[in-house]
Structure formats: C-alpha cells, structure tokens
Amino acid sequence: MYYSIRHVTRFRYSQPISESMMEVRMQPRTEGVQRCLQFNLSVKPKARVMAYRDFLSNTVHHFGVPGAHRDLAVIAEALVEVRGEHEPPAALAPSAWDELDALTRAGDYWETLAPSAFAQPTGLLLGLVREFGAVRRDDPLSLLNELNARMYDAFDYVPRATKVDSPIDEALRSRHGVCQDFAHIFIALLRHIGIPARYVSGYLYHRRQDHDRSAEGATHAWVEALLPHLGWVGFDPTNNLIAGQRHIRTAIGRDYADVPPTKGVYKGAAESSLAVVVRVSPSDAAPPADDLMPMPVSEHWSPAAEPDRAAIDYQQQQQQQQQQ
Question: Dihedral, CA atoms, 141, 142, 143, 144, nearest 10 degrees?
C-alpha cells in the first residue's frame, strides 16, 4: 500500500513575534515494512531547513525565522510505502517470559523499561494494574492482546479531554482521553510488568468500515512492545488494533516528550493559536518512477525584517500538537 500524506501546521500570533526556532519530527521512518519514498518540508515565512538524526534515528528537521512575523506555517508532504506483513500469532509459548528476560538482559532496553516523563507508575496506574490483573501469566503476547482490549473497553475516546502535557492520572481518573493518553497508560502498564515498551508517533489511515475511534485529520500515537522472536510489535489501545498496514510511523521514543511533531520557542509577548490538518490518501498502485526521486528539503532564508523591540522581551514555548 502507498500513502500520500500532507500535514499542515499553522501558528498564529496576536502580535508580531520574532526568532522562532523549531524542531519538526514529521518525516516517516524507513524501517522494516515501511519505506519513505519522498519527503518535503516547507516553511512560511521561508526559512532554511536543516536535518539531523536523533538518538533513536528519528529524522529531525529544524529551522529558525529571525524576522518579525504573525503567522508561521509548516507543511510536510510525504510518499510512503507500507508493505503487508504477517500478523503475529495469537499466542507465544509460556517460556516466552524467560526468553523475554534473557533478551532484555542481553540488549540495551533499559530506557524502554524505566519510567519516563509521561509514563509514571502512579498510584492510579497501580490501581489499574490490579483492576486488569496485569501480572505475568499465560504468555507475553496473550497478555498484551488482553490488555489492549481492556484499555479499549475501560476508557472512552473524547477529543480535547486532556492537554498535550497532561499526566496520565487525568485520564486514569476520568476514564477518558485521546490516543496520546492511552499510549502513555499502556506504556506504563507494560513497563510495570517488565515488558519493554516505546511510544510511536505517526498517522493512521482511516476507513469508514473500520470504525476507528481516533480522530481523522490528526496525528496518531500507539505503542510498540518488545517480544521474543517477533521483535517490536505495535499495539493501538485507542482502537484495539495490532498496528498494521494502516499505521504509518514517523518517530519512536520513550514517550511523547521525545517525539512531538513540532517543538520550539519564540520571542515576544503574543498569544498564539495552533491549527493542524492531516490528510492521508491511499493508493494500491506504485507511483510513477519520477515520483520516487527524493525531494530536497527546502533551503531558503527568511527575508530579514526589523522586529518590534517592545514585543520580544521574553522567550515563550511554541504550542505543541496533542496527538488525537
């Protein structure tokens, strides 16, 4: 399956600001069954965009807009191939728990086992552990499938029920939230059991017949768990799915703090608003050969402008996109 993705992020400010600095994690990963065939990032006002790989091999684009501006748009366009893969078996052997422990001892997985900023073993989380009976039993894969379904049944999907920086206790207390909340709770559950788990940021192609709960037109988040013989397997507790051909991965991390689609700062006293539009369009046919040529990242300097000195007396954080 091939997907064309267009992800538009627009910031608006109540008065001119300057010195916007931003990191962007929107380029789909090339790994396993997924290939990013084409990617382009453009910025308005024009800015020189550069890129590097972070410690988890996510592609990070970054840019600065030094001059005064009241609008900032970031437009990411990608062409991605996601090949079909064999679904994992329904269960593993009971000995898989011992194999998992041997795997984690032999590898460098401590960061996906330890608590992280948004995946803490709080009192409410431990209460959920007891409620779900989330202890080692049967085999790791059977338990993961059960917990994925329990999360889906126990929590209601309610857009904007939480904020981008909400701790998991908000969703645990109210029993509703969005995919970002459910991914963090699921990660904390798995790590408590001793299963390495990581956060995945990306996109989900929505089809009417699938009755997905997560919001179309937004980014998505799910979880990958490490399993013996299978490697990293994706679980989507928002939609009670095993991640498959409709899931498009852009970045992996310990939790959302490692992989926000946009993260930045600016100088100024302005209030800001954020709007995000995502479109994922599928195609069964391979794109024309010319379309497979890599598209260069835009490298244009923003036009110089003299900022309003009264409005740049302090630095503020750019708003971040909550994953729906």
Answer: 50
Residue 292 · residue 37 · CB < 8 Å: yes
What is the 8-class DSSP label of residue 187? H
Whole-number Å distance between alpha carbons of 14 and 254: 34
Cα–Cα dist 93/84, whole Å: 25
> What is the fold of 2-82+259-322?
Immunoglobulin-like (2.60.40)
Tell me if residue 152 falls in helix, strand or coil: helix
The pair of three-digit structure tokens given for residue 267, joined into one six-digit string:
């100088």
Any idea which fold 95-258 has?
C8orf32 fold (3.10.620)
Residue 49 and residue 7 in contact, taking contact as beta carbons nearer than 8 Å:
no
**Alpha-carbon separation of residue 170 from 175, 230, 256, 322 (angstroms):** 8, 33, 16, 15
Q: Max alpha carbon distance in the chain (Å)?
A: 67
Task: Calculate the alpha carbon distances from 273 to 12, 118, 247 in Å.
Answer: 5, 24, 28
Specify the amino acid at residue 319.
Q
pLDDT in tens, 276-293: 999 999 988 777 756 554
Q: Please list, in sequence order, all residues whose beta carbon lies within 8 angstroms of the beta carbon of residue 44, skipping any fewer than 6 positions away.
A: 71, 72, 73, 75
Domain extent listing, the chain: 2-82+259-322, 95-258
Tokens of 300: 């244009």
Structure tokens at 321: 């996109």
54-87 pLDDT tens trace: 999 999 999 999 999 999 999 999 999 999 878 8
The model's pTM is 0.90
| CB 66, CB 304: distance < 8 Å | yes
- Within 123-260, residue ranges assigned H as helices are 123-132, 140-154, 168-174, 179-193
